[in-house]
Amino acid sequence: MKTALIIGAGLGGLCTALRLTQKGYKVKIIEKNPTIGGRLNILQDKGYSFDVGPSFYSMSYEFDELFNSVGVKNPLQIEKLDPIYQVYFRNRKEPFKIYTDIDKLAQEFAFEPRFKEKIQHYLNKASQFFHDTENAIVKKNFNSIPHYLLGMTKVPLKHIPYLLKSMWKVLDKTFEHEETKVIFSLVAFFLGSTPFETPSIYALLNYTELKHDGYWAVKGGMYSIVREIQKLLEQRGVEFITGAEIISYENGTPNKISAFLDHHGNKYTADVFVVNSDAAAFRGKVLKKTKYNEQKLDKLEWTLSPFTIYLGVRKKLKNLIHHNYFLGDNFKEYANKIFKSIIAPEKPYYYVNVTSKSDPTTAPEGCENVFILCPVPDLRYKKDWNDTQEFALNIIQDLQERIEDNLLNYIDTMHIMNPIDWQNKFNLYRGSGLGLSHGMLQVGGFRPKNYDEDYKNVFYVGASTTPGTGLPMVVISSRLVTERIEQANF
Ligand SMILES: Cc1cc2nc3c(=O)[nH]c(=O)nc-3n(C[C@H](O)[C@H](O)[C@H](O)COP(=O)(O)OP(=O)(O)OC[C@H]3O[C@@H](n4cnc5c(N)ncnc54)[C@H](O)[C@@H]3O)c2cc1C
Predict the structure, then answer these.
(1) pLDDT band at 85 (very low <50, low <70, confident <90, very high)
(2) Which member of 49, 311, 481, 485 has the lowest number of beta carbons within 10 Å of its beta carbon?
């Protein structure tokens, strides 16, 4: 029986472990934190349970594929959300409700001339981006940049201009009103960037949210994903070692690693190693590759950092639904300035998730679990977070004014994670929440590969390798790396 050691128990590591057990591997997973799941984690306090990071469950069919690949029906209980989210603007009392039914959606945008026609045209185009790249590019392993570029030649030529234009540019041309443009550009934040920097091809995310598969509430919260995978891994005899961080390695034959070592000095050997720690940062920090030293890592494009607040609130909040955005009225100026600034924004833009709205078991009776996520500059820009409490209070005060409900007097529990916490907890480079960003020079053949350039028994899975970030992409990443391992000769 071949043995595999997985370094990191994030979604990428867990899914790869599951797929490798199906291929007959004996698997061990080593994780630096006391709990597994990585960014897909859980925080429990006083009867409240909070999803630590991801809250949008999308492309549900990728999870079906994962479970089906090991002969199991997807055990997650999910319920479709509709509206999928709502968006508040500072200068408008009522939020926009985003429905997947185009007629209902058109009523929300009644002020936008020919909205229905425009959105249908926009989504048709986005659907073509999605279906023309899904199997040809996203779900494929490429061995080199020329191999990738050859793959790109199979993408219809009509899409090429959209690789070069920003998402904002296309939205700006399509719609008249600022609010319409801003709302449909919010998907850029799923890629950890702004619509001014994100290529317009990623409008495909508008198609996935509005037409293809939508967003779902997961019963019990997002951590149910981890629990269900964990159950299967335990049935398959996978060994978990938690509280141990891999910090160095030993060479075997010149092109193989023989063992990894944790910070206690324990040594782990295996036939194959799969790294779920950030694929770029691990190459630099642990494998000491000069191509990924700190100076070079800092020059790469990284996604925004999260500033997150977890509030247990002792009452029901009437003006919130499962997913909510709170935006200001100076989007372009905000997006262009704030993410490279050394100061926290005075009037922040943020996202609020309340799972107790769709699953009351995630908070005590009559209470709500409020998760607030404010994207902020990574630690290359704003290094000092001594203003953490002040910034959190600023956001909470803003939120309570905008939902016209007192929060501060009803707080049962409050936890905060600033970019330094995110960096330290999950080894996220400079606190970047989603890993490497997705400009055209950091995707496909240009992204750090899922196999090591020097060691033929070392592979990578997760957000900073191919295909990219977000839970469904990481599930696909686990499939791609498993294919690599199967084809490899180590
Ligand atoms: C605030 C936030 C909100 C998000 N929202 C969404 C969303 O709504 N929907 C969505 O689809 N995606 C979302 N994402 C993105 C999603 O969380 C990630 O893309 C995905 O969870 C990454 O999984 P991963 O396995 O690649 O990495 P991780 O989850 O980071 O897992 C890596 C694991 O490796 C461990 N590790 C690292 N280094 C070592 C080491 N040296 N030794 C041992 N262990 C190590 C880490 O502790 C961690 O557990 C969000 C992310 C954040 C931060």
Answers:
(1) very high
(2) 49
